[in-house]
Design goal:
The protein contains 26 helices and 18 strands. It is of the alpha+beta class and 729 residues long. The radius of gyration is 28 Å and the shape is globular.
């Protein structure tokens, strides 16, 4: 149960692809494999020790185990240190670190009905360890011993601790900029608990000062602008009416029906708050009991332990109870439009879950042990009372393999969808096949190589063979998530999805994109030019549903994989493959845009309506006319010998011309693209494309620069473009 599902597959692929295509301190990087150069690789393995093992030549199973061992060491050591500085004993802190492993790591977490965050996204282990170290340093700030020896010494030590926190925060953001930023919400809440638990006003002031110091540095580095700008151009945050800012909304009264309660429990489980999924009926392995133990343990620490630990217990019990009530309201629909998913808070809370739930369970175990001693006077009592906290984690660790095996078998019996999900943990079974072999031969991409086109995979097309094989209507719009059924069918028959990661692993670029940061402009193209009316729009996936050949060829698509025959003079059938009741076809598009489209006409357009109407009426217009936001002086002549070479975090563009020319690159435009030749002008065309203006010979390099400390305002310029064009209101 290690590395399960698409997200885990994605993290492993990124651990290799980022090293090849990006630099350590780039923060974000150009991704040439999806979405016309999706401009974000969200996880940076340079700052994640658990991902380093994937650069070796070891077997895949060995890599899985060794990487999880690294995360295990990171989490347990940092949690032990955190427990010690909070005020727990050495033995209890060690036992709590083991208990944390049971609650968080696979396979133990599945036995207890908890979400498998580390099974699907193991990099959370590195994020959690960094969060633990940040809190550890924050606890040390303002200690009386620092300023009893003078204000200068106090400033030096507290300043060094605050700088350490700053470095850890930057490391967390460098390792996973957007996931790391999300989890900072949980770290900040825990920091507030520690601040409120300060032993004196002086310590509270020192801690507030450290927070202001970190905030000021972040502001100076434009980190807040970086995230605001990135969020504003991302389709995931379009919201109702394309609002840039979304505030929680209150809805009252609501109808508390059985359907509402069922939906609420499903929401809480999917969000990672609480699950009632039990391996065996009646077994005490749902996670509801855990939250009772956490709150009771926090209260018990408040009542029984010395300060400042007692205050930490009391404040955390209050915080966690408040969060549970808030998320219950969200699950019932009382509160809506909450942008941040609970998972970003929950992940960093796991050490405190372990500390306080184990404390309450230890109290119960001690109470029962004393009763046993009273009834059986000759019972052997451990000489050290601290051995009691170890009983629970040791017992569970001994029993967990058998319990997890039974749980996995039960999941497998639920049907092919769950079995398929579990099989995703064995990525070495990914196969190639005739179509994939042809794509690898023709368009596989490596650094320094010329871009030879991408592939658009269109499964479940209207009138297609997959719909017929799966018993679906030929003409009805697709439902949300149905695309997965088509992927399952293709993979079951061929051993390969023919899309997304199953092609990226073979270095084949796709038009499809799977990411948290799909751009608004790409979703506009997919929704308006590559979908049928009523087709679903999922901001986490950009899947084409319609073979609009002229639009596809303009977007750099050279091959189309589809489950029905195409009758179009602009495509050539290369391979037809049987899927057992369905067929898969590979077509090649004639003269796709490989950095070769050279429009000679310009149309000034201040909105997307004119572009949409023009392309709807004549999709081929993208090859000859560029829709731009500002007038461009002509006339223009067609360029010759255009080509693109993808390099590490950059694209080299080459062409020649007898006069002034334009090149329409199948690369998403952004003001974050920096051109090496000042004589070359780069601008946005047709909402999404990069337009190059030049004269004579062209040999220029476009470098992607969007990071914290040097260049974050470029995305704000992109946001201004999208507002002018009407995609942001």
């Amino acid at each position: 149960m290690l590395y399960i599902g698409r997200d885990a597959d994605f993290s492993i692929w990124l651990a290799q692809a980022y090293m090849i295509w990006a630099t350590p301190f780039g923060v974000t990087a150009l991704n040439p494999f999806q979405g016309m150069g999706s401009m974000l690789m969200p996880m940076n393995p340079y700052f994640n020790p658990g991902a380093w093992v994937f650069q070796t030549d070891l077997g895949l199973a060995t890599k899985f185990v060794l990487s999880m061992v690294v995360y295990f060491l990171e989490v347990t050591v940092s949690s032990y240190l955190l427990g010690r500085v909070l005020g727990f004993s050495q033995s209890f802190s060690f036992a709590a670190a083991l208990w944390l492993v049971i609650l968080l790591f696979p396979p133990f977490n599945f036995v207890f009905g908890l979400q498998g965050w580390l099974a699907t996204s193991p990099q959370w282990g590195n994020t959690l360890a960094i969060s633990n170290l940040i809190l550890t340093l924050f606890i040390f700030i303002g200690q009386r011993a620092w300023y009893e020896r003078g204000i200068v010494r106090a400033c030096a030590i507290n300043g060094a601790l605050a700088t350490g926190i700053l470095i850890l925060l930057l490391t967390c953001l460098l390792a996973a900029p957007f996931y790391g930023a999300g989890t900072m919400a949980g770290t900040i809440l825990l920091g507030a608990v520690i601040l409120l638990s300060s032993s004196s006003r002086g310590q509270a002031f020192w801690r507030i000062g450290a927070g202001l110091y970190v905030f000021a540095i972040f502001h100076a580095l434009d980190i807040f602008e970086f995230f605001t700008a990135a969020k504003s151009v991302t389709a995931r945050f379009m919201g109702d009416g394309n609002r840039e800012i979304s505030f929680p909304q209150i809805h009252w009264p609501i109808e508390l029906s059985k359907a509402t309660l069922t939906s609420a429990t499903e929401w809480l489980c999917a969000a990672g708050v609480a699950c009632d999924r039990l391996p065996w009926r009646g077994a005490l392995t749902g996670s509801y009991w855990l939250h009772v133990a956490i709150i009771v343990g926090g209260i018990a620490v408040w009542r029984r332990m010395p300060q400042p630990l007692s205050r930490v217990g009391g404040w955390f019990a209050l915080l966690w109870a408040t969060l549970l009530v808030f998320w219950i309201f969200c699950s019932l629909g009382i509160v809506t439009d909450v942008v941040l998913s609970p998972v970003y808070v929950v992940v960093t809370m796991y050490p405190f879950w372990a500390f306080f739930s184990l404390f309450s369970l230890w109290l119960v175990a001690r109470f029962l042990a004393l009763r046993v001693i009273a009834f059986v006077p000759r019972v052997v009592v451990p000489r050290r009372a601290w051995t009691l906290p170890f009983l629970l984690p040791i017992a569970v660790m001994v029993c967990a393999p058998v319990m997890a095996w039974g749980y996995g078998a039960r999941l497998a019996r639920k049907g092919p969808a769950v079995s398929y999900f579990l099989e995703r943990g064995t990525f070495d079974v990914r196969k190639s096949g005739s179509i994939v072999d042809k794509l690898r031969q023709e368009i596989a991409l490596h650094p320094g190589e010329t871009f030879r086109g991408s592939v658009a995979t269109i499964l479940g097309a209207k009138g297609g063979s997959l719909r017929k094989a799966l018993g679906m209507p030929d003409t009805a719009p697709l439902a949300q998530g149905q695309y997965e059924f088509f992927l399952d069918k293709v993979r079951a028959a061929t051993g390969n999805d023919h899309d997304l990661l199953d092609l990226w692993w073979f270095n084949v670029p796709t038009l499809s994109e799977y990411a948290q940061s799909i751009s608004r402009q790409l979703m506009f193209y997919v929704a308006n030019f590559l979908s049928d009316p009523g087709d679903p729009s999922d901001v986490g996936f950009a899947f084409p549903h319609v073979a609009n050949i002229d639009v596809l060829r303009a977007m750099g698509v050279r091959f189309v994989v589809i489950d029905r025959a195409l009758s179009d003079a602009r495509v050539t059938l290369l391979i037809k493959e049987s899927l057992g009741g369905a067929e898969l076809y590979l077509y090649e598009i004639t003269q796709p845009n490989l950095g070769t489209f050279s429009p000679v006409e310009v149309a000034v357009d201040s909105g997307f309506d004119k572009l949409r109407m023009s392309v709807d009426s004549n999709p081929a217009i993208l090859a000859s006319r560029a829709f731009v936001q500002s007038p461009i002086e002509g006339p223009f002549v067609p360029a010759r010998n255009g080509r693109m070479i993808f390099e590490k975090n950059s694209v080299r563009v080459m062409a020649s011309s007898d006069g002034a020319s334009m090149l329409l690159l199948p690369l998403q435009f952004s003001h974050c693209l920096r051109v090496s030749d000042p004589r070359v002008r780069v601008s946005r065309a047709d909402l999404i494309f990069t337009l190059i203006q030049f004269e004579g010979p062209l040999d220029a390099r476009l470098t992607w620069e969007f990071n914290f400390w040097r260049h974050s305002g470029c995305r704000m310029e992109d946001r201004a473009d999208l507002r002018t064009l009407g995609l942001i209101r």
